[in-house]
Design brief:
The complex is a heterodimer of chains A (about 220) and B (about 220). Chain A has one domain. In chain A, helix 3 packs parallel to helix 7 and helix 7 runs antiparallel to helix 8. Helices cover about 85% and strands about 0% of the residues of chain A. Chain A is globular, with a radius of gyration of 18 Å. With about 220 residues, chain B is mainly α. The longest helix of chain B has about 40 residues. The radius of gyration of chain B is 19 Å and the shape is globular. Chain B has a two-stranded antiparallel ribbon with strand order 1-2. Chain B starts with a helix and ends with a helix. The chains are: A mainly alpha (about 220), B mainly alpha (about 220). The interface between A and B is medium-sized, with 29 and 28 residues.
Chain lengths: ~220, ~220
């Protein structure tokens, strides 16, 4: 067990290090966030927009930015032909754990940026900040859990870029519907307690998908 | 599969089609004669979900044993499920036109069947994007299991989150089925009949796929 944790940490650190050195995804993602948010700005103009619509726009930008970034984690290994070396040096469980945590860090960093830019550029008012943040955090956990295993699946297929949204959308939809609804309610000022139904769904979704991913990743990774 | 099974399926479905149209049904508020669609629509939806879980079951078997037969079964079941899913969407949509006034209005039930269609579509897209048969079998098995664990969220949670206009709260009020005995008989016969039809079609489909695999192997040699 201890060995697995140590190997996971090592793979996580390896990913962070290689990302900082090569800037494989981070630069293009930062630009992607800026582009998306500016498009939203120019589309809205100076109009006063309702929170319902703004929440939708916020989640559209989160979904597309993260799906661009998260789908790269395993594709990167295949494209740079490092996956064989990784397979030789480690079991499947630590690889998956390391990648999962790398994706989590990436997603939280991106979301932080998106949120700040979004609030600065549009006049998005959040009435229940605690509920809002809890929802965003739990939503991100769900997003990452499902995206990581699907990223692993598409890394072995042809036409990886197009396949990712096709495969992830139906799997992510229960999460997206719930999280958009909860974010909207929180931003309109509903008490956090009243959101507990939605939050429970987010938590159970994350747990179910993560457990399934850990059980199934071995089959995707090993030849 | 034995002849008796096929003949019985034929008789049951003929019985359902005739009695479902001819026999009177009890007065159900706001539905009336349009409720007859449930003899066909409900079995279709039931089979599209059943086929989906059968496909997942064969996927699990495949990952355990690595026998290509299970992949063929999983794929065949998914294809039939897709067919029945389209039929369920079509019958439901037709009914919605006459009861709700529009073919499609994103009722939670319609959203869930739409997502089931999307999952089937994604499964086939994934299969066609992988060249090696073994990789294809392995990855599509994993995807079908991942998708299957999210289905309960749609089928059981989503329709209850938002107000739905789907009539099962009227007919199936608090778990008690409000149908008289004639209606119930036709309905249950229909469920059994269509499930048997599905099993028969699955059997045929698996045999066809196996023959094609055999042919492919022979031409390669």
């Amino acid at each position: 067990m201890n060995k697995t944790i140590r190997a996971s940490v090592l793979i996580f650190r390896k990913d962070i290090k290689s990302e900082l050195r090569t800037r494989y995804v981070i630069n293009s993602l930062l630009m992607f966030v800026l582009v998306t948010i500016s498009i939203i700005r120019f589309a809205l103009g100076d109009e006063k927009t309702e929170n319902e619509i703004l929440t939708g726009l916020l989640w559209i930008s989160i979904f597309f930015t993260t799906s661009n970034g998260l789908s790269r984690t395993f594709v990167k290994e295949e494209e740079k032909e490092t996956s064989v070396a990784l397979k030789l040096s480690s079991d499947s469980i630590p690889v998956f754990t390391g990648k999962l945590f790398f994706n989590l860090v990436l997603t939280f960093a991106l979301n932080f940026l998106i949120l700040i830019l979004f609030i600065l550029i549009t006049d998005y008012t959040i009435k229940n900040l605690t509920g809002f943040l809890i929802t965003i955090v739990l939503g991100n956990f769900g997003l990452v859990s499902a995206s990581t295993i699907i990223a692993a699946i598409i890394s072995k297929a042809n036409s990886k870029g197009t396949l990712y949204p096709v495969l992830s959308f139906p799997v992510l939809l229960p999460l997206l519907i719930t999280v958009i609804n909860a974010t909207k309610l929180a931003s309109l000022g509903i008490d956090t307690e009243k959101l507990s139904g939605e939050l429970m769904i987010l938590v159970s979704y994350t747990i179910v998908i993560t457990v399934a991913s850990f059980m199934l990743f071995r089959f995707v990774w090993e030849d | 599969m034995n002849k008796f099974f096929v003949i019985l399926t034929f008789i049951l479905i003929t019985f359902v089609i005739i009695t479902g149209i001819v026999l009177p049904i009890p007065e159900i508020p706001a539905l009336g004669d349009k409720a007859r669609v449930l003899y066909f629509h409900v079995p279709m939806s039931w089979i599209s979900v059943l086929a989906f879980f059968m496909s997942m079951w064969y996927s699990i078997r495949y990952l355990k044993t690595r026998e290509i037969d299970y992949d063929i079964k999983s794929f065949s079941s998914a294809q039939l499920g897709f067919l029945f899913c389209i039929l369920a969407t079509a019958t439901g949509s037709l009914w919605a036109k006459f009861n709700w006034g529009s073919f499609w209005n994103w009722d939670p039930r319609q959203t869930s069947i739409f997502i089931l269609l999307m999952i089937y579509g994604a499964y086939f897209a994934l299969r066609s994007a992988i060249d090696s048969p073994e990789q294809r079998a392995k990855l599509s098995s994993v995807y079908s299991i991942i998708a299957a664990v999210t289905v309960p969220f749609f089928v059981f949670i989503m329709p209850r989150l938002v107000e739905s206009l789907h009539p099962d709260p009227i007919i199936n009020n608090q778990g008690k089925i409000h149908m008289n005995s004639t209606m119930l008989t036709v309905f249950l016969t229909s469920l059994v009949g269509f499930t048997m039809l599905y099993l028969w079609m699955l059997n045929l489909k698996i045999r066809i796929e196996k023959i094609e695999l055999y042919k492919l192997k022979n031409t390669e040699d």
